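Job type: complex structure
Entries:
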Amino acid sequence: MNLDDETLLSAYLDDELDPADRLAVEWSIESNPPLAEQFRSLAQARDAVSGLPRPAIPRDLGPVLGARLAANRRRERLRKLARPAGVAFAFSGFFGIAASLIFALILLNHSLHESDKLAQIADQPVPPIRSHLPVPIIKPAETPQLASTLVPVVPRPVDPKNSSPRPGSFDETRELDARRAIAGMLEQPHVRRIRIVTDVLDASDKVKDLIHQDARKNPEFGRISICQEIVIDPECAEAAEVFAVPMDERDRKAFVGQLARSFPSLVEESDETSPDLVTQLTEVGQVALFSGTKAAPLVDPPHDLRPFIANRAEFPQNHIVESNPQSLEPGRPKDPTDERKAESPKLVARPSTKLKPSERVTVLVWVVTRPTRRL
Amino acid sequence: MTGSNDDNSLIVACRAGRTEAFGVLVQRYQDRLYPTMLRLTGSTEDALDLLQDAFLRAFEKLDKFQGESSFYTWVYRIAVNLALSGRRRRKVTLRLTLPDHDAIDPQDESSLSDPTLPLELAERDELIQAALNALADDHRAVVVMKEFDGLRYEEIASILEVPVGTVRSRLHRARLDLRERLKGIVHEDAPTEREQPARNAH
């Protein structure tokens, strides 16, 4: 190849050369077949990228940005109010200990083999699943047997006039039930991933950004630490189930620490973005479950596959578990009918000519901590 | 593009504290910026996240906007640099992945391509995006700005604050890399759409 600087080829392709260099490149290409071939392949690489589609934005950012801007303003106001000279520390103790955890449980996997075994196992009783995952959030005095089912708390409508904190209104029974619920979820055999996002007010800026800047759609977001209302996004009002799990900061740290100790090779920090959260909690101590980008109840796996799941066995070959794709694809352009479909995601086993490595059913669990009452 | 006069009046309103004016700017440019962010990040959610961060940063720094470029160009620059910089907020996420030998990361790649396209084309687009994703960040940024947005070398150099020669060499190396990664995807024997230099198209 007799072109001293091969980058000239790209520059020629982009019409970024002066006339003299352009002539030199053209001469080189004409007289040098390998160089001509290289030029051609570069053009193909260029065309491949430039030919990529330009999809429309799947949702308007205006409401989210509005909420984030409003939250920022609120935070600034709180900061100004909450930190007169000399009492900054005490005040931050009051407002500052609210935190939330998001667990994203990605359920159900699902590629597996041995279809002939399916029929044999399908009728067997499902043995109880014992997770080796500790549940440190449960205090000794409250540690009855862990429930394996979830305990829904019916979401209440928002009363904007009554959004101030109601310390003391916390229901200890619900607290216990909710902790059991979390424990139960952790015992689900088909849970594959738990994502925990910690939001702590008045912690580092990085974490504070989370609570104020996450992609929530409701402009009331930001009251999460001091409100008692549940705000369900109107786009998915019917699809949310809300669970209560109170944690204070100490509990949260213990819980996360336990996870990290129990699964040292599995727990990691990452910068994954959270899915589009369509339900928003503002009551301290609540958890909502989501499936994909749509809030949805947990779904049970198909009956005939439960034995495989329970035994953490592989599914029969040529069967995959398929979730309702309408409800599970983040970022999918909204179809008005999607919302209704999302309310009841279905899992079905269907024949497949090729194994899919995984199917996605995401369940997000929000854990919002209780403000500590040390003042 | 909508007239910069319009943008200027909105920016003045934003500076006066009228955030709804900023909403108009977001509405005006989000559609145009999104595809670039999608190609830069490789995922719908990351692209939306990045775009949000860029707009938010733009709002916060609006006082520093001198009007030397258009508002669009300014936000574009912010977004690209956010994508490249480590300053972007990193979510503190603890992820617990239960053992699953064949689990894959559930990226929403399905939404990267147009669902109305024939499957083969959609798959091809996804493979091209995967090749893009595999590039080094700074190479991918140059490729996206050049191939996807059609910026000139000087414009790219200005956005990235690097010499034009750096843009040229990054782009060339990125194309060589892409060429290798796309072997078997792009048809070697097919004539390219633009086999002649781009000047012919201008």
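Summary: The longest helix of chain B spans residues 19-41. Chain B touches chain A through 83 residues (CB under 8 Å).
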